[in-house]
């Protein structure tokens, strides 16, 4: 476990949680009782993190895993799950980009008015729709 924690930016607590939630199965232990992760385990952990970091619920990840374990009869179902998740991720990215544009606009407004505010402390900064004098 220590190797995985140190090299894959994941906590031991998270790994144990994944086992409790039955997302990780069959982790063998060495003679001292320490978990020994194979390359396949590490690939699966990496994929779990990818799905979690992009917003997939643990329940959906478990569903995906259970489908995978059923074999190729669920191939199309799993592919569809990933396609749907991809669409959700793309939607979130587009929303985040719109928010980033708004933040960039506000920063540009600060840049444009910086000198005026520095030279005139009573200058009414215009940018947020909060330009009322009584907000000071």
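-> sequence recovered:
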């Amino acid at each position: 476990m220590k190797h995985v924690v140190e090299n894959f930016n994941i906590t031991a607590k998270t790994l144990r949680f994944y086992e409790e939630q039955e997302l990780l199965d069959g982790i063998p232990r060495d003679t001292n009782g320490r978990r020994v992760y194979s390359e396949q385990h590490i690939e699966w952990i990496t994929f779990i993190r990818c799905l979690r970091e992009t917003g997939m619920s643990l329940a959906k990840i478990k569903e995906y895993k259970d489908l995978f374990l059923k074999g190729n009869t669920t191939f199309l179902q799993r592919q569809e799950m990933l396609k749907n998740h991809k669409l959700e991720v793309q939607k979130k990215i587009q929303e985040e980009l719109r928010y980033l544009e708004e933040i960039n606009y506000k920063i540009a407004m600060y840049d444009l008015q910086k000198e005026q505010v520095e030279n005139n402390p009573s200058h009414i900064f215009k940018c947020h729709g909060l330009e009322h004098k009584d907000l000071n």
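The longest helix spans residues 75-119.
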